[in-house]
Amino acid sequence: MSGAARRSEEGLARLRSQMSAAMEPRALTSFGVADQFFQYLKKSGRLRNRVFADIGANLGSWTQPFAMRYWRVLAFEAYSRNFEALSKKFSGSDYVELVRKAVWDESGKSVDFFYDETRPGIGSIRNNSEHFREETRETVETITIADALGEDLEKLELIKTDVEGAELQTLKGADLPRSQPSVIVAEISGRSAAFGYGPDDLAAFIAGAGYDVFLMMAKAREDSFGALERIHFAPYTTCVGRPAIGANMDALGVRKDVAADFADLFGRHFVEYGY
C-alpha cells in the first residue's frame, strides 16, 4: 500500500471513531454503503475520472469517504442548516464543491423547499411528508447536473440521489445518454407520488438509459458505527409491483458494460425475492 493510500485508510478509521454516534441510522448505513461502492469502483478500475455527484448530501455521509480518497465531489444540499454544517465539515477541502441548490430537471427556477428542523435528513420541494409544515420552508434555486458540471459532465462516474421523492427529476437533468456514470444510486419511496411517478417509473427510466437495475437493501449494525450488518441486491425485474417499499431501499443502476464487474465483486450479496 502506498503512503497516500495508507494515510487515506488511517484517516477513514479516524473519521469512523470521531463522528458522532448520535447520527441518524440512515446516515450510518449510507456511510457504510458509500464505502462499499468506493471499493467496487476501485477494484473494477473505475477510477479514471473520479467525479461524484452527491445529490441530497445531507451531512456528508456519502461525500466524506469519496473526498478522503481524492475524488472530486459535487455535493448538492438545499436545506440551509445542513449546508452550513457541510461548509464547516469540508472547509478547506480541495475535493469538495458545495452547491446550495435543489437539483432538478430545469435550472434557474425559484422553488419552495420544505424541511423539518428536528430531522435533518428530510427535506423536499414538495410538501409530501407529515413532518413538514407550511411555515417551515425556504426558497432555493434549481440546477441540473448537466449545467452544474458543464464540460466535465462526461467525467461523471457516480450519482447518488436521495431527495425525498424527486429522484427521477434529478436524473432527467443529468443527461444520462451523454454523462453515462458507471453507477447510479437513487432512493425509492412513496414520496415520489407527489412528483407524479412511482418506483417502477424510476427503475424504467434508469434501465432505458442503458443500465441494469437492481433493488438495493442495506442495514447498519447497531453496535458498530459505519459497519454494515448486511447489504442485499436483487434484480429489479423480480421486484416490480411489490406492495411495500421499506426504509433504506434504493434503485441501483449499473451501466451494462461494467455490470459483469459488479456481479463478480458483489455476487455474495445477491438474493432472489421473486415478487
What does this protein structure show overall?
The protein has 275 residues and is an alpha/beta fold. The chain has one domain: Rossmann fold. Helices cover 30% and strands 26% of the residues. It has 9 helices and 12 strands. The strands form 2 sheets. Strands 3-2-1-8-9-12-10-11 form an 8-stranded mixed β-sheet. Helix 4 links the parallel strand 2 and strand 3. The longest helix has 19 residues. About 9% of the residues have low confidence.
Care to give the gist of this entry?
With 275 residues, the chain is α/β, with parallel strands linked by helices.
Outline the fold blueprint:
Layout: H1 3-18, H2 25-43, E1 51-55, H3 63-67, E2 72-76, H4 80-89, E3 96-99, E4 102-103, E5 110-116, E6 119-124, E7 137-143, H5 145-149, E8 156-161, H6 167-172, H7 176-179, E9 183-187, H8 199-208, E10 211-220, E11 228-235, E12 249-255, H9 259-266
Parallel strand pairs: 1-2, 1-8, 2-3, 4-7, 8-9
Antiparallel strand pairs: 5-6, 5-7, 9-12, 10-11, 10-12
Question: Major sheet: size, sense and barrel closure?
Answer: 8 strands, mixed
The number of helical elements comes to 9
Based on helices, strands and strand pairing, what is the structural class? alpha/beta
Give the CATH H-level superfamily: Vaccinia Virus protein VP39
Beta-strand portion reads 25-35%
The CATH architecture name reads 3-Layer(aba) Sandwich
Unreliable spans are: 4-29
Radius of gyration: 18 Å
Q: What are the secondary-structure elements, in order, as H or E?
A: HHEHEHEEEEEHEHHEHEEEH
Mean of all residue-level pLDDT scores = 78
> How far from one another are the termini?
44 Å
Shape: globular
